Amino acid sequence: MQTGTLITLALYFVLMIGVGLFAWRKSTDTSEGYLLAGRNLPPAVAALSAGASDMSGWLLLGLPGALYASGLVEAWIGIGLFAGAVVNWIVVAPRLRQQTEELGNALTIPEFLANRFPDKAFALRVVSAIVIVAFFTVYTAAGLVGGGKLFETAFAGLLPNIALSDYMLGIWITALVVLAYTMVGGFLAVSLTDFVQGCIMVVALVLMPLVVMFGSGGEAGGSIADVAASQPGFLSLTEGLTLLGFISAVTWGLGYFGQPHIIVRFMAISTIEQVKTARNIGLTWMGVALIGAIGIGITGRAYAERKGILFEDPETIFIVLSELLFHPLITGFLLAALLAAIMSTISSQLLVSSSSLTEDFYRLFLRQQASERERVNVGRICVAIVALAAIAIAADPDSQVLGLVSNAWAGFGAAFGPLIILALTWDKMTGAGAVAGLVTGAAVVAIWIAGGLNASFMGGQYLYEIVPGFIAAWLAIVIVSKATGTARPARG
């Protein structure tokens, strides 16, 4: 690997750790500062932080790889996600910002639910914390798999005397850098690094397909027509698309309402009035990013066909094109963009998992009167514990980024999605209904995955597990709430 690329990446790592040290001096004296940056994020930082923590390594690995392999039909996932994000910003963001502050200044989603339904506070905090930690450990592992694939593909033999495979070396380097700024700087560090990472990501996502299409040596423009001719339907949004396949793709958008690492950004925006500004910035960023990722998959396939390049793992297309088409310094920037996508999500997930372990386990069961400093330090320890568990899961080099992300995304979307929407908008929801929805959503997703129904359902067709999980959770909340009476009115 050429020196220029390594220098660029080294500078990127230094920048991330520097931001962590800055945040450490600004907002880690109290648990509110460490977990929510004092509810004082500017709208641009909140918007790009939500976007960057959402669009993990799957945006530069999983989605382009799926489009490379199957064609434009895979774009329905991105379309569904964008639609879900629009509704999330309009329905959930302003209400969650307002109600979490009004209801006991809740710092975590489990704490908000407990304050919203005090009769079931204990059950809601414990069950929701278990779901968060379990699914986020898997989700974090997906990000580490992306880091492993990056180093395995782009930095093979970087440290030949290390008794680790290139894949595991990548996992450990990614994890240690994220731990450095997350443990030190907390939510403010994560949000500020997300902002920087979001800017890097969107530049890379615009730059890559343009260079592949029109840059020197790209030659992909005419090749797209060749691919379309040799593989009919490659550029079609409907080729081979079944009804269940369409539902499975677009319903990825349902997951947004239940992603704690995304919606916690809404809680931290400085004022309710600035939610609209953050929404406009966030949705613009997301639209450009998704179009860029789709473009990488399509133009990358055309370039590979023209050059006779064979990809054993389509999820590495962004990495390989970065090395083939760009100067080493630019390659370093592009690989930093991939690491940005990976690290922004991992850091957010680690912090949310840590907050649940600290606020909903440690304080609840061990030290109810823990001081602010003690809670911050326990949070740092919990970040490291979750990271180690995720490293163990990610150790399998055959893991697929998109597969791990889809499972975790469905788990959160089904468990928390209906629960959050109805808690914010339905005045007849009860604590018993909340518990029923939370347990039902998580259980149905787990059973669907364990039974292989996400791979073979109704004659072998694929049905994404979020669909039955979301529906079952919504019904459970409504039925149990009506059977157990009325609750305090929701506001907003």
UniProtKB/TrEMBL annotation:
UniProtKB keywords: Amino-acid transport, Cell inner membrane, Cell membrane, Ion transport, Membrane, Sodium, Sodium transport, Symport, Transmembrane, Transmembrane helix, Transport
Main location: membrane
Cell location: Cell inner membrane; Cell membrane
UniProt KW Transport keyword: yes
Keyword set includes Transport: yes
Gene Ontology CC annotations of this record: plasma membrane
Catalytic activity, as annotated: L-proline(in) + Na(+)(in) = L-proline(out) + Na(+)(out)
Membrane topology: Multi-pass membrane protein
Alphabetized GO MF terms: L-proline transmembrane transporter activity; proline:sodium symporter activity; sodium ion binding
Annotated transmembrane regions: 6-24, 75-93, 122-147, 167-188, 195-214, 234-257, 283-304, 324-346, 377-395, 401-424, 431-450, 462-481
GO biological process: proline transport
Summary of the function given for this chain in its UniProt record: Catalyzes the sodium-dependent uptake of extracellular L-proline.
Family: Belongs to the sodium:solute symporter (SSF) (TC 2.A.21) family.
Name of the molecule in the record: Sodium/proline symporter
Organism in which the protein naturally occurs: Altererythrobacter rubellus
Gene name tied to this protein: putP
